């Protein structure tokens, strides 16, 4: 199997699975219980919190665990806004941000959606012009899940801080954490969403960084877990698995990033052997090294996806969450100015540091065979 | 861990995961790790596993598969039910009826709604923790949009008259939600027969994994989403599906509901032996909750003159895991809101202990608790100035 769909989800590391299993079998106590089983569970919660905090250089006490990235995004946005507020976001955010914003627009909150350029980077001038007195929140994704564009978060934060001291900043770092070095302190972020299953951790766990002193309303209220900000019995096995995954990715992260970059570089170089293609996420400072979006002109991305599947190679056409519905058109690619034709033929290859140059070569061979066949029948 | 023996009497806080459940989950961590929303065949295995689990949950509560939505747990399901119904039906009314003994997930969601213009009636309960159907009927107004009453209480184990509540709700055309987190696997549930419109459940209370639950939403019920985003769960609950968790929930609910009668018979027999032993060996002890209509594994008792927290500590040193109230509020010094609602005075509520039995409980565990607990209670009473005063005065005790 060649798995090039690591932005949809990743395969949990063996160490992660072992930790999840251990927690289920041995440390099954409720972390809130006063007895020894609860205490053991609480210890592991703490270890996980420390690792996840290290992932973004946060204070351990500023991390709360959630059921995943979507819940983190919903909590951050709904938790901070009230009627009459203004919020700034972009047109290429993840659906868990865009749909939440759409929902709150109906409740009397105004939203400005920033445009992006051909690289998928937000329009900085438009951002400057959009900040107002009542701008309560700027929510911007760090790395786009489909085209891998990297937003200039430091610059954005600088602009916001200089324009309105009351504006808070939320960063959806689901695709960037563990792939780019992140330091919430030097960046001066207020809120940041993280997900476990994008870094070889288990599904069903995520985190939200909440800067000390920032008041937010919980999305899920109840027993008061996670400093009263996220109630519900802690999902210790998955959270602990998340912690292990964070620990592994932090270990020699520079080397892992170099490895992923080399995989993408090799792939892009070998794409020179193809006609009629367009690389939508080139190798430059604006794009991350683990996402490669390519349009194969004249081919339907979906057809290519299924053909690759025959070779046991797994890729994606859009983000997995919306991939099923053809009615659910890709909204990111039009925003970077792609033609209808290029959108139809777009395929996303997303890598992990576990992928190899040999896998790239195998995929290129498969692509050549498939394209020769498909383009022949087209003519 | 100190001490070799471990007697787990805290099944109401959380249960261990059954090996069969773990086995069912494992492949979805390893070979079938795909994102169920991806379109290649390899991910379809995850998708069909989710649908299989959905069928199992539906079957266990008498619902249809397309009425089950997976969540991140019981608290999320409760929050979704309350906030979702409130905001989707605010044009019809702003009144919600619940009880004083609900789980905090319900009570705090209600507080949130109160801040947002909703009015909440908190029904009283009697000394056994039972609501009054008359009081419920009287509380209904033309603005009432939802009745949310727990199926069984997590602290004192009292089982509410759900079918009767369902009839009232149906008759008055009001949505009925029940938090059945403690009931699943212990009580037979049929949402159609009981006229339940929404029901919350959590896997880790019936030998499934933590971090996964479900909300049953009857077809046609008008509800808003709690977590927006990707179109998962038929566009009602966004977020990449926690497939191993969902598969585990399916397997666990199948096991827990396949033979409730014989399971309960075994647990009740041990529970009653333990309870009778406690009442016999420890004077000045009161049973909290309904004597008959209670969860099979639940014992909640108040020992006069002692602090529940000290009791818990000493029990833990002897290897017995128990609880004073619900686990989520164990960090708090306030007496349980449930015990206060059934009319216990503060000082007696403070001396309460919950022992919750389950599938891991063995006969020898009962023997062990009956050997250890009376000694610990006596030891604490011997140190208690209240007990000293009581002995001197020799007053008659009527608890």
UniProtKB/TrEMBL annotation, chain A:
<dbReference type="GO" id="GO:0046872">
    <property type="term" value="F:metal ion binding"/>
</dbReference>
<feature type="domain" description="Aminotransferase class V">
    <location>
        <begin position="2"/>
        <end position="362"/>
    </location>
</feature>
<dbReference type="InterPro" id="IPR016454">
    <property type="entry name" value="Cysteine_dSase"/>
</dbReference>
<keyword id="KW-0408">Iron</keyword>
<dbReference type="GO" id="GO:0051536">
    <property type="term" value="F:iron-sulfur cluster binding"/>
</dbReference>
<dbReference type="GO" id="GO:0031071">
    <property type="term" value="F:cysteine desulfurase activity"/>
</dbReference>
<dbReference type="InterPro" id="IPR020578">
    <property type="entry name" value="Aminotrans_V_PyrdxlP_BS"/>
</dbReference>
<keyword id="KW-0479">Metal-binding</keyword>
<keyword id="KW-0411">Iron-sulfur</keyword>
<protein>
    <submittedName>
        <fullName>Cysteine desulfurase</fullName>
    </submittedName>
</protein>
<dbReference type="Pfam" id="PF00266">
    <property type="entry name" value="Aminotran_5"/>
</dbReference>
<dbReference type="InterPro" id="IPR015421">
    <property type="entry name" value="PyrdxlP-dep_Trfase_major"/>
</dbReference>
<dbReference type="InterPro" id="IPR000192">
    <property type="entry name" value="Aminotrans_V_dom"/>
</dbReference>
<keyword id="KW-0663">Pyridoxal phosphate</keyword>
<dbReference type="InterPro" id="IPR015422">
    <property type="entry name" value="PyrdxlP-dep_Trfase_small"/>
</dbReference>
<dbReference type="InterPro" id="IPR015424">
    <property type="entry name" value="PyrdxlP-dep_Trfase"/>
</dbReference>
<comment type="similarity">
    <text>Belongs to the class-V pyridoxal-phosphate-dependent aminotransferase family. NifS/IscS subfamily.</text>
</comment>
UniProtKB/TrEMBL annotation, chain B:
<feature type="binding site" description="via persulfide group">
    <location>
        <position position="328"/>
    </location>
    <ligand>
        <name>[2Fe-2S] cluster</name>
    </ligand>
</feature>
<feature type="binding site">
    <location>
        <begin position="74"/>
        <end position="75"/>
    </location>
    <ligand>
        <name>pyridoxal 5'-phosphate</name>
    </ligand>
</feature>
<comment type="subunit">
    <text>Homodimer. Forms a heterotetramer with IscU, interacts with other sulfur acceptors.</text>
</comment>
<feature type="binding site">
    <location>
        <position position="182"/>
    </location>
    <ligand>
        <name>pyridoxal 5'-phosphate</name>
    </ligand>
</feature>
<keyword id="KW-0963">Cytoplasm</keyword>
<dbReference type="InterPro" id="IPR017772">
    <property type="entry name" value="Cys_deSase_NifS_bac/arc"/>
</dbReference>
<dbReference type="InterPro" id="IPR015422">
    <property type="entry name" value="PyrdxlP-dep_Trfase_small"/>
</dbReference>
<dbReference type="Pfam" id="PF00266">
    <property type="entry name" value="Aminotran_5"/>
</dbReference>
<feature type="active site" description="Cysteine persulfide intermediate">
    <location>
        <position position="328"/>
    </location>
</feature>
<dbReference type="GO" id="GO:0031071">
    <property type="term" value="F:cysteine desulfurase activity"/>
</dbReference>
<dbReference type="GO" id="GO:0044571">
    <property type="term" value="P:[2Fe-2S] cluster assembly"/>
</dbReference>
<comment type="function">
    <text>Master enzyme that delivers sulfur to a number of partners involved in Fe-S cluster assembly, tRNA modification or cofactor biosynthesis. Catalyzes the removal of elemental sulfur atoms from cysteine to produce alanine. Functions as a sulfur delivery protein for Fe-S cluster synthesis onto IscU, an Fe-S scaffold assembly protein, as well as other S acceptor proteins.</text>
</comment>
<feature type="domain" description="Aminotransferase class V">
    <location>
        <begin position="7"/>
        <end position="369"/>
    </location>
</feature>
<dbReference type="InterPro" id="IPR010240">
    <property type="entry name" value="Cys_deSase_IscS"/>
</dbReference>
<dbReference type="GO" id="GO:0046872">
    <property type="term" value="F:metal ion binding"/>
</dbReference>
<dbReference type="GO" id="GO:0006520">
    <property type="term" value="P:amino acid metabolic process"/>
</dbReference>
<keyword id="KW-0663">Pyridoxal phosphate</keyword>
<feature type="modified residue" description="N6-(pyridoxal phosphate)lysine">
    <location>
        <position position="205"/>
    </location>
</feature>
<keyword id="KW-0479">Metal-binding</keyword>
<protein>
    <recommendedName>
        <fullName>Cysteine desulfurase IscS</fullName>
        <ecNumber>2.8.1.7</ecNumber>
    </recommendedName>
</protein>
<dbReference type="GO" id="GO:0051537">
    <property type="term" value="F:2 iron, 2 sulfur cluster binding"/>
</dbReference>
<keyword id="KW-0408">Iron</keyword>
